[in-house]
Each structure stands twice: as structure tokens, then as C-alpha cells.
User: Which sequence fits this backbone?
């Protein structure tokens, strides 16, 4: 059976209004419209990188569970929280 758009997990991408670079173990992110500066380290950095590939929370959690050998349900909860914060700050948008 073919999945409909409504049944697919929601995927995101970096918003067009942000510029970012990976510097050592940190994502340095600038909102070019507001000049607000953000940084992400550790798992947050990895989530940011995977969002840049147009992935959704579920796909990111599966990937991180493999990479970090951690419980997927815990990662998914944390991933959704970060995605919601990034969405509220308009740093990501639907892919």
C-alpha cells in the first residue's frame, strides 16, 4: 500500500534565513534576518546535520540510536524537543 503525504513522518531542512558552519565540535548558526547567533554541540550538532539532509525526527532517532548505541525512544523524545525549539526560532522549515 502506498503511503499518503499525511502519513509520512514530517521532514525538515535548514531555513533559508540561516547560515552555518561546523567549527571543531560545534555548529555556529546565524539567523541572517535577525543577526541572532546560535550554537549546537554534541548530539544537537548531529541532529542539525541530519536535519540538513531533509530528515524527520523518526529517521534521525533511528540513525542516532545506531551511532550512539542508545535507546531510540529516548533519542526520539529529545530530538522532537530540539526540533520544536528550532522550528519556533524559525531555524528549520518543512522539507
Assistant:
Amino acid at each position: 500500500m502506498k503511503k499518503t503525504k499525511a502519513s509520512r513522518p514530517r521532514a525538515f531542512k535548514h531555513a533559508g534565513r540561516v547560515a552555518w558552519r561546523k567549527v571543531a565540535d560545534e555548529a555556529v548558526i546565524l539567523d541572517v534576518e535577525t543577526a541572532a547567533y546560535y550554537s549546537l554541540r554534541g548530539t544537537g550538532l548531529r541532529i542539525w546535520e541530519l536535519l540538513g539532509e531533509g530528515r524527520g525526527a523518526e529517521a534521525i532517532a533511528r540513525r542516532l540510536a545506531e551511532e550512539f548505541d542508545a535507546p531510540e525512544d529516548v533519542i526520539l523524545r529529545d530530538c522532537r524537543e530540539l526540533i520544536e525549539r528550532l522550528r519556533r526560532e524559525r531555524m528549520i522549515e518543512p522539507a
